[in-house]
Specification:
Keywords: Cell membrane, Membrane, Transmembrane, Transmembrane helix. This protein is mostly helical. The protein has three helices and no strands. 70% of the residues lie in helices and 0% in strands.
Length: 90
């Protein structure tokens, strides 16, 4: 995802954060800015976890970047829900 630049991070992060918030049923609580932040941070989390398992996250392409951001954003929303005491959303 590094080759996309900041605009690519914002677009993919925003889309991934939005889809993740719909999957995790937190869409009503999150605005567009929060969706972007959750998607970008989710991409970093997802990329870090995949790198721990030896997966080449840089050479994956656009779809792989989106799926990585989506999975990381869902994980992030779930963890934040646990910390805030809302329990599991899965």
């Amino acid at each position: 995802m590094l080759g996309l630049g900041i605009i690519g991070w914002i677009i993919i992060g925003g889309l991934a954060g939005w889809v993740a918030s719909m999957i995790m049923k937190t869409n009503a609580q999150m605005g567009i800015l929060m969706n972007i932040v959750v998607g970008i941070v989710g991409g970093l989390v997802g990329g870090f976890i995949l790198a721990l398992f030896g997966v080449d996250v840089e050479g994956g392409g656009l779809i792989f970047s989106f799926v990585t951001c989506l999975a990381g954003a869902c994980l992030l929303i779930w963890v934040v829900g646990l910390v805030r005491g809302r329990g599991s959303r899965v």
